[in-house]
Design goal:
It is a single chain. Helices cover 61% and strands 5% of the residues. The protein is mainly α and 465 residues long. A two-stranded antiparallel sheet has the order 1-2. A two-stranded parallel ribbon has the order 3-4. A two-stranded antiparallel sheet has the order 5-6. A hairpin with a 2-residue loop joins strand 1 and strand 2.
């Protein structure tokens, strides 16, 4: 078929060149955004006297019909067209005649595709944020229900100090909360309209770019026409945010995989989110957690790819920038899918509270509190540290835990120990006396939960940005 730009050429494009150059196979994904932008452009052209009211009405009716026919399946987007813009314009002209040829007045495919991609990305920022918000609600509910579920906290994958499951999950709440706020920042920063920038230097037609921007829900028009068509920073920012979301999911998945192992037995993944082995009947594999962990590299790859693509491109538009779409679409779909599956897996997961508490007791997580006990009795901390070190070594040799020792055994290590050592090193005491904000103590956690409830209640998704 004839190309939109074919007037200057005397030969048909080589078939392989055409296929290599075409983007219809993937930019069909934002056909609704292309039509939405075209409708706003037509309305603005009529307002400025560039189109008659009749021409505008016919164009808007034709575009609306195309959108509905594609959505219903009555009209198929085929690869005989170079890109989604060519498809829409050709269908429009076929349906309404000469008026359809006037739609492209005052714009270029450069600012058109910049608009389409920005509209699509802006909507997906919201969709990902909604997925994150669902996960945050799940986490907060689990935090509220596990303020006294004791477990070991780790450093270097070594048992360190006792915490609660609620506190541990709260760490991930903070991570995903930051992810949500990053998406808000991206939404605000990207929310300016490139349409009307033309190929790179604007247009001589008296366009009202501010009006077009308002029709499309933007804060205003972009302020440099060259940057408008050459900017993909918002995609880079979005992919960086998505990569961070996946990094947080991957860390969480790694812990769930460990907790699900026979060595930990902290959790049992629901049958709906696990698989078995084709040869070993006893196996219950954490495949969803492993796949989320694995797909993190896929999203990282999208970010590195677009950074590499953009690093050497002179102003303004270059065809290289067509490479922004497929990898971005894939990364978005990957993250949304991972969020939904992870949330479902977490909501249905069974936590073995007794195994968690037993692990905390047997890992000497209360050793620091035992040292603090001695300090409270007047022993210098450095001496107390050494005494408890010997106490731990004694327990290891005897195959027991600190709180299981007799008072006589305590006194053999140091005469300072009294009967109150048992209360001092209980998991309940170790956790409850940590009351500073951000600590695992129940009063501190209740305040954090209250603040997190307030955060979700006033989510930026509820605001009109």
């Amino acid at each position: 078929m004839a190309q939109l730009w074919g007037g200057r050429f005397t030969k048909e494009t080589d078939k392989l060149v055409y296929q290599f150059n075409a983007s219809i196979s993937f930019d069909r994904k934002f056909f609704e955004e292309d039509i939405e932008g075209s409708i706003a452009h037509a309305v603005m052209l009529e307002k400025q006297g560039i189109l008659t009211q009749d021409e505008k009405n016919r164009i808007v009716k034709g575009l609306t019909g195309i959108r509905e026919d594609v959505k219903s399946g009555a009209l198929e987007i085929t690869e005989e067209y170079e890109d989604i813009h060519s498809f829409v314009e050709a269908c429009l002209t076929e349906r309404i005649g000469e008026a359809g040829k006037k739609l492209h007045t005052g714009r270029s495919r450069n600012d058109q595709v910049a608009l389409d991609m920005k509209l699509y990305t802006r909507a997906e920022v919201v969709h990902v944020a909604e997925g994150l918000e669902g996960l945050l609600h799940t986490l907060l509910s689990l935090m509220e229900g596990n303020l006294d579920t004791y477990m070991p906290g780790f450093t270097h994958l070594q048992k360190a100090q006792p915490v609660t499951l609620g506190h541990h999950l709260g760490a991930y709440f903070e991570m995903f909360k930051r992810d949500s706020l990053r998406l808000k920042d991206i939404y605000v920063r990207m929310n300016y309209c490139p349409l009307g920038s033309g190929a790179l230097a604007g247009t001589t037609y008296p366009l009202d770019r501010t009006y077009t921007a308002s029709l499309l829900g933007f804060e205003g028009p972009t302020l440099n026409s060259m940057d408008s068509v050459a900017d993909r920073d918002y995609i880079i920012e979005f992919l960086a945010a998505l990569a961070t979301v996946m990094m947080h999911l991957s860390r969480f998945c790694e812990e769930i995989i460990l907790w699900n192992s026979n060595e930990y037995r902290f959790v049992e993944i629901d049958d709906a989110y696990a698989t078995g082995s084709s040869i070993m009947p006893q196996k219950k594999n954490p495949d969803i957690a492993e796949l989320v962990r694995g797909k993190t590299g896929r999203v990282y790859g999208a970010l590195v790819s677009i950074l590499t693509t953009m690093k050497g491109i002179p102003l303004a538009y270059n065809k290289d920038m067509q490479e922004d779409k497929e990898l971005t679409f894939d990364a978005i779909d990957t993250v949304k899918g991972c969020l939904a599956l992870f949330d479902g897996m977490l909501r249905t997961m069974k936590f073995h509270k007794e195994a968690m508490a037993e692990s905390a007791k047997n890992g000497f997580t209360n050793a620091t509190d035992a040292a603090d006990y001695l300090v409270g009795k007047g022993v210098p901390f450095r001496d107390a540290h050494g005494i408890i070190g010997r106490l731990v070594l004694y327990c290891i040799e005897k195959g027991t835990s600190i709180d299981a020792l007799s008072l006589e055994e305590f006194k053999e290590i140091s005469p300072v120990f009294e009967e109150d050592i048992y209360q001092a090193v209980s998991l309940k005491t170790c956790v409850e006396k940590r009351l500073t904000i951000g600590a695992p103590g129940p009063e501190a956690m209740k305040e954090v939960i209250r603040r997190n409830q307030d955060f979700l209640k006033h989510s930026w998704l509820c605001e009109k940005i």
